[in-house]
Design goal:
about 0% strand; mainly alpha
Length: about 80
């Protein structure tokens, strides 16, 4: 079991969740996490652009952490040992 892959997967999941928080909580979260004033203002004005950009980032991070948690990494390998 590769510990570094598990740690990378967990961190990717945490960061993806924080990005979802930016979408849900809006401009103040975009500012806090350094997305820039323009993203924060667009979010506060109700623009769809920050949500789309952040959603793409969430999808990329989610795909990354799913790849880290492949079944052969977390569970026993069920090959026969003959």
């Amino acid at each position: 079991m590769n510990v570094f892959l598990i740690i990378a997967g967990i961190l990717s999941a945490v960061v993806a969740t924080l990005h979802l928080g930016c979408i849900y909580f809006g401009g103040s979260w975009y500012r806090f996490f350094g997305a820039g004033e323009q993203m924060a203002l667009l979010s506060e004005q109700g623009s769809i652009k920050p949500t789309l950009i952040t959603s793409i980032i969430v999808l990329m991070l989610s795909t990354g952490h799913c790849m880290h948690f492949q079944p052969q990494v977390l569970f026993l390998n069920f090959h026969s040992s003959a």
